[in-house]
Amino acid sequence: MQKRKHYLRPDLIQVEERPDLRRSVRVVPGSISARLTATAPSLPNKQVQPKDCHCVDLSEHGIAVLCDSDRISSGDRVSLDLLQGGHRMDNLTGSVVRAEVSQQHTRLGIEFDHQHFTHPLFQAILGR
């Protein structure tokens, strides 16, 4: 039996583990790109759209991304569009459960509102 992997590695996002989110098999997504819009109630504009956003890890429960915005934090609501080749899945919603800001980029752990792993578009993006 294959050992299950964590979708957000502790060395990627250096925060406390959330055991409930660490039970799913992780997929390392190669060439999947993400477009992210975050709704941050504490900001004047209310919405943040990073210009650059890269998918690092992906699972049925959530996604880890690197982006160029330091204004997104834990608890913010997000909407994601995932793109890979000719496949696109729009309006995946969720919330930021982890955020780590560095000088170069922000690492985010996002928990999906719904599981999308069995959706045909999601499977196509993963190349299955």
UniProtKB/TrEMBL annotation:
- Extract the Pfam families matched here: PilZ
| SUPFAM superfamilies, A to Z | PilZ domain-like
Q: Which domain of life is it from?
A: Bacteria
Q: Which GO terms describe its molecular function?
A: cyclic-di-GMP binding
Question: Where in this chain does the record put each PilZ domain?
Answer: 21-114
Task: List the protein's name.
Answer: PilZ domain-containing protein
Q: Provide the species name.
A: Marinobacter segnicrescens
